Amino acid sequence: MLSELRAVRYVTPLREGGSLPGLVEARGVGGDPGLWVAKFTGAAQGRKALVAEVVSGELARRLGLRVPELVTVEVDPVLVVGEPDERVQDLVKASGGTNLGMAFLSRALGFDPLAFPVDPLTAGRVLWLDALIGNVDRSWRNPNLLVRAGELWLIDHGASLIFHHNWPRAAAAVDKPYDASDHALLRFGPDLAAADAELAPLVTERLLREVLALVPEVWLDGEPGFGSAQEVREAYVAQLAGRVSGGRDWLPEAAA
User: Fold this and answer.
1) Which pLDDT score, from 0 to 100, does residue 31 have?
2) CA 175, 246, 143, 36: dihedral to nearest 10 degrees?
3) How far apart are CA 93 and CA 76, in angstroms?
4) CA distance 37 to 22
5) Which residue among 114, 143, 159, 240 is least enclosed by CB atoms within 10 Å?
6) Has this prediction a pTM greater than 0.85?
7) How many Å apart are CA 39 and CA 74, to the nearest integer?
8) What is the DSSP string of 40-79?
């Protein structure tokens, strides 16, 4: 399970994201408050975006890529009683309960491909992951990458796992090709063949179940067509395991 924190202060909205995440102070039992980027269930993308953040982010971490720590953040709507922005008030009021927190990386800079070259193997690993999870939000326009102390960090995976928005047709998307034409790291000649040889054997059903176990049950309960949160978890496992164990039609042409 992810670490559980409680928000104690809403600091400021982060207006770069369409879902209007916010910087909050949050702390665990007996701990000191720290800064976290909160993503809210009441945002337009809803709880499925948070599921995608956890599954994709924690899978990336287990494959050796850098992702800020993810936690759950309990939010009381009174947290924004003094917030002048009505959109923020409405969002947080609609998000009482369990939300997602991502560790705030101080002194991190947005990724600039002209200032920060990426080696082909690292680029291949990131692109391989994005192809596996169907991440449509790692383009050169919006890389969702940060650089801190010379290290590359992956953020914002809410636009991945698009198949979960239409479960009845999910199985048909197992081999769906990934369009990498706008990918932020394509210019660095990603070595997808090496990445596939390295990472594919690691993505086992056991690993996927470990990752899915981190998703809060409240974000999975009540999913149409499923009798329990555990059934939903197994559906994610089957979808991703099927993608890895099948052919490689889903990999971009650069893998050839």
Assistant:
1) 82
2) 110
3) 8
4) 6
5) 114
6) yes
7) 11
8) -TTSTTHHHHHHHHHHHHHHHHHTT-----EEEEEE-GGG
